[in-house]
Sequence to fold (171 residues):
Amino acid sequence: MEVKMRYENAYQTIEVETKELEEWLNISITDDESESAYEKRIQKEIEIQFNRPDYNNWHKFDRHRGNSKAQTNEEIDELDTSEPLMDEVMDSRIFCRDTIERENQWEYEFICTKLRKALGADQANMVISIILDGQTVAEYAASIGDKSNNVSHRYRRAINKLKKVFSKTSF
Fold:
């Protein structure tokens, strides 16, 4: 018997014995059914069990796939389409995330070095923790085991010293 099977987006006709089809589909011919009606029922069952799910899954996966603006006909096979291109996303910083994080880390280290040169070690650590790391005065005071009032006064003195130092020099 000839059976139509869907492969990708087109039908292909294959020759299969009726006994094998009965085993595949788990159906058999009834006494009052003709041979042509039985073959139609087999094809209908194949459509339900094999052809539609494969096509639907393929269609679900491939329906939004298209050619990118950056592709030419020669590059279609070479270009990885699993990720969008830089001009296809709303925020292109995602493609430069490593570079941005690295530059932020270098800037942080540069500022810490300048603060340590301008202030003493304890004052520099306090200013770095409060200003750059975002701790509150109370949190920093609790971390070093001191009163927040004392830390607040030291912090204001360090800020005034920084104003004097950096008003004379620049980075």
Notes: The chain has a mean pLDDT of 81. Residues 35-62 form the longest helix (28 residues).
